[in-house]
Amino acid sequence: MSITMNTSNSSLFLQTETAQGLKTMGVAKNQMELEGKMALQLIQSANVVAPQQSSSSSTLGGTVNISV
């Protein structure tokens, strides 16, 4: 008893496997691009401008008394 593979089925299997691999790579690339955009949006949203100091006439915290 001998078993032989039909070459046309083998070729079809390889083509299907290659197509699935390419599709998976495309999905992974799209996912990476989406995650990159989300990361940039997060970084930009965290870019908070520090409040400007009021005039120099404010004495709050200007004098510190230390006794030993």
Structure description:
The protein is mainly alpha-helical. It has a domain of 34 residues. The protein has one helix and no strands. The radius of gyration is 33 Å and the shape is rod-shaped. The mean pLDDT is 79.
Task: Summarize this entry quickly.
This protein is mostly helical.
Please give a handful of descriptors for the protein shown.
68 residues, mainly alpha, rod-shaped, 0% strand
Number of separate helices: 1
Shape by Cα distribution:
rod-shaped
Percent of residues in β-strands: under 5%
User: Spans of 5+ residues with little confidence (pLDDT < 50)?
Assistant: none
How does the major sheet shape up?
none
For the secondary structure, the number of strands is 0
Question: How helical, in percent, are the residues?
Answer: 55-70%
Structural class: mainly alpha
Rg (CA only)? 33 Å
Terminal residue distance: 102 Å
Q: Please provide the ordered H/E string of secondary-structure elements.
A: H
Mean pLDDT: 79
Identify the quaternary structure here: single chain
